[in-house]
Design brief:
Elements lengths: L9 E2 L12 E5 L21 H10 L15 H11 L1 E5 L1 E6 L9 E6 L2 H6 L6 E4 L2 H8 L11 E7 L2 E7 L11 H14 L4
Helix pairs in contact: 1-5
Length: 197
């Protein structure tokens, strides 16, 4: 008798967030399990520092995107900000199997990669893509012909007769061993390059 556990396939729980004016597309790997969410949007886990990094860069306040009780992120405030700045969000995987009961990229088996070309077709003003981790970078590079940039660096690539840049950023997960202030310094380079700050 085969007692091997069958791991279910999880479809991405969110629609791509694609403001019409987006100049930047940020791609992670895949959201954490719902039990870890503090809001119904990207980077929902309170243990993930993405929105604190944004708070530091744009408002000199790591708690800017938190509700006053600090128990959840303020989805409406985040969406308003992203629409104003022209920042799109999604992930490089549309369906995965979690090989262990956690959000670690190391244990994500990508069943269906996201169609990156389809996202870019909907973002005519996009000038750059950011990947926030190794799994996201590897998955994206299977679809686009672009050299892997070093962490904190960028590589140019051609897409539909225009030049875009791929930025490779450190993971915003606390599992990635770098102080939040250093992560913010690294991420800030993108926003300066794109004239968003």
């Amino acid at each position: 008798m085969n007692t091997e556990k069958i791991i279910p396939v999880e479809a991405h729980p969110l629609e791509p967030f694609l403001p019409a004016n987006a100049v930047l597309l940020m791609l992670g790997s895949f959201p954490p399990q719902k039990k870890r969410w503090s809001m119904d949007f990207f980077y929902p886990n309170l243990q993930n520092d993405m929105w604190r990094i944004f708070g530091i860069i744009f408002f000199s306040d790591k708690d800017y995107f938190l509700h006053p009780d600090k128990k959840s992120f303020d989805k409406e405030r985040i969406i308003k900000f992203l629409n104003e700045k022209g920042i799109a969000l999604y992930d490089t995987a549309s369906a995965v199997r979690r090989l262990q009961d956690n959000a670690s990229d190391k244990f994500l088996d990508i069943v269906e990669p996201t169609d990156i070309n389809l996202l870019l077709k909907q973002l005519p003003n996009c000038r750059a893509i950011v990947t926030t981790g190794q799994k996201a970078t590897d998955t994206l590079r299977q679809q686009l012909e672009v050299a892997e940039p070093p962490i904190g660096g960028k590589s140019p690539f051609e897409y539909a007769d225009r030049i875009l840049y791929l930025y490779r950023m450190p993971s915003s997960s606390r599992a990635y061993p770098l102080k939040i202030e250093k992560k913010a310094e690294t991420y800030q380079l993108i926003f300066k390059d794109l004239g968003l700050i």
